[in-house]
């Protein structure tokens, strides 16, 4: 049972990262970038890795501490990543930031529910 406390959030982490990747691709299909470059594609994949680490840090903070305000700290990573690229694509970066925050919030809601439900 103790392994399931870690295994379920890690699987949920992978599912959330896959959903984030699908959402990024759908945004780019609906509103394509005019001058798509290889570096922008690498940036999208790097943002998935940053989101994975953000969700992992959120899981550990949720498991190891009782201070609920610390849960908001890991979301700074994707916000800083996309705020650095506001000059490249200003409106799109806000959408990507919002998407990261929404997925992080959904992930923490589900992990918190599972923690309270199953201890």
Automatic annotation (TrEMBL):
Q: Which UniProt keywords apply?
A: Membrane, Transmembrane, Transmembrane helix
Which segments cross the bilayer? 7-27, 39-62, 69-88, 94-115
Keyword Membrane part of the UniProt annotation = yes
Output this protein's name: Transmembrane protein
The organism of origin for this protein: Phocaeicola salanitronis (strain DSM 18170 / JCM 13657 / CCUG 60908 / BL78)
